[in-house]
Amino acid sequence: MTEGETLEEWRAQISRRAEALESAAVDAGAQAMKALLLINGGASVAILGFLASTISDSTTPHKARLTYAFVHSLAWFGGGAGLAVGASCLAYLCNSFYARGLIDLSSKWDWRMGRYTNWAAIGFGLASLAAFWAGLWSIYQTYL
Questions:
Q1: How much is the pTM?
Q2: Domain presence at residue 23
Q3: Model confidence at 45, in pLDDT bands (50, 70, 90)?
Q4: DSSP letters of the chain?
Q5: What is the pLDDT of residues 46-86, one digit of tens each?
Q6: Does residue 47 fall inside a structural domain?
């Protein structure tokens, strides 16, 4: 608080900063979920292309091994895309619970559920990222 600034002005400034930071956090979370869906979905599409090429080419050496590896990694990438969608759904629920908590300040249930769905959305996002890395590792091991 600077000299000459009233306590109410200072509180209003802090409130505006908190709102801006909260908005930035929500936007960053939404962008992260979009990125997770994009990388896992893009990897799934690319693997489907490689799989189609491998299966249709009769001269591909180690066809069974490559097919198994591509299908295995496709499961990881597809699971990662599904987890990213799940994270988005949980984020929606989280915001819904918090909004209802603001409408009815006496409801501790909405705040508690908002906190749980928030942590669940973070967990789903981290699991989606882990699935992407597992899919990459699965392909990498094929070429060792």
A1: 0.83
A2: no
A3: very high
A4: --TT--HHHHHHHHHHHHHHHHHHHHHHHHHHHHHHHHHHHHHHHHHHHHHHHHHH-TT-TTHHHHHHHHHHHHHHHHHHHHHHHHHHHHHHHHHHHHHHHHHSTT-HHHHHHHHHHHHHHHHHHHHHHHHHHHHHHHHHHHT-
A5: 999 988 888 887 777 778 888 888 899 999 999 999 999 99
A6: yes
